[in-house]
Amino acid sequence: QLQLQESGPGLVKPSETLSLTCTVSGGSISSSSYYWGWIRQPPGKGLEWIGSIYYSGSTYYNPSLKSRVTISVDTSKNQFSLKLSSVTAADTAVYYCASLIAAAGTSAFDIWGQGTMVTVSS
Amino acid sequence: QSALTQPRSVSGSPGQSVTISCTGTSSDVGGYNYVSWYQQHPGKAPKLMIYDVSKRPSGVPDRFSGSKSGNTASLTISGLQAEDEADYYCCSYAGSYTFWVFGGGTKLTVL
């Protein structure tokens, strides 16, 4: 059974870079059946897709965040990572990693990590 | 402002049915059959309930069903139960520039 777990600092200073890692267990990150994605949720608000990556390294970003986002994959560690630069208080949110089904004719975020709260504050 | 429009709240009594709408455009909901619905209980991660407009993942009760007409997708929950009280979010593929968009979420209250 595929499981995802986020890790990283819970507090980031304004203007610095937010860095999170998602560890995949119960399956291979190199599976052709999945993309891997990051989604965030500000306190009391809705969900926002940040970006996704394929094991080959192909990346897809939310146009509104693209200039500040980098997602990478480390197949040797079965992990993928998020970096968000120049953060402000508006980036305070629960950050989720999720698997994105990549089968032909099918697509959805089917397995989610538990989420990690990141606060941007000095 | 979310890309997809959902009612902020809906409610129903146990045993009744409720429908949550999700309105987009021909560039997202209307253009692709990649609409999914997620249930989120307070403090928990979202859970996939419906994908590809109307398909149910294994383990999701058949009380949950999805459909789409034009630019509007719908989630119907029949035989409401207390544990269905949660926030529900729709999501749609939106093409190779925007990729994925979510609705603003709907709070379901079971009276």
Fill in the keyword field for this structure.
heterodimer; A: 122 residues; mainly beta; 7-stranded mixed sheet; B: 111 residues; 6-stranded mixed sheet; 1 helix; 43% strand
Task: Give a structural overview.
The complex is a heterodimer of chains A (122) and B (111). In chain A, the strands form two sheets. In chain A, strands 2, 4, 5, 6, 9, 10 and 11 form a seven-stranded mixed beta sheet that branches. A four-stranded antiparallel beta sheet of chain A has the order 1-3-8-7, with no helix packed on it. Chain A is built from no helices and eleven strands. Chain A is mainly β and 122 residues long. Chain A has strands at residues 3-7, 11-12, 18-25, 34-41, 48-53, 59-61, 69-74, 79-84, 93-101, 109-112, 116-120. Chain B has 111 residues and is mainly beta. Chain B is built from one helix and nine strands; from the N terminus they run E-E-E-E-E-E-E-H-E-E. Chain B has one helix at residues 95-98, and strands spanning 9-12, 18-23, 35-40, 47-50, 64-69, 72-77, 86-93, 100-102, 106-110. In chain B, strand 5 (64-69) and strand 6 form a beta hairpin. The longest helix of chain B is centred in the C-terminal third of the chain and has 4 residues, at 95-98. The termini of chain B are far apart. The chains are: A mainly beta (122), B mainly beta (111). The interface between A and B is medium-sized, with 22 and 24 residues.
Question: Which SSEs are present, and which pair or pack?
Answer:
The complex is a heterodimer of chains A (122) and B (111).
Chain A: E1 3-7, E2 11-12, E3 18-25, E4 34-41, E5 48-53, E6 59-61, E7 69-74, E8 79-84, E9 93-101, E10 109-112, E11 116-120
Parallel strand pairs in A: 2-11
Antiparallel strand pairs in A: 1-3, 3-8, 4-5, 4-9, 5-6, 7-8, 9-10, 9-11
Chain B: E1 9-12, E2 18-23, E3 35-40, E4 47-50, E5 64-69, E6 72-77, E7 86-93, H1 95-98, E8 100-102, E9 106-110
Parallel strand pairs in B: 1-9
Antiparallel strand pairs in B: 2-6, 3-4, 3-7, 5-6, 7-8, 7-9
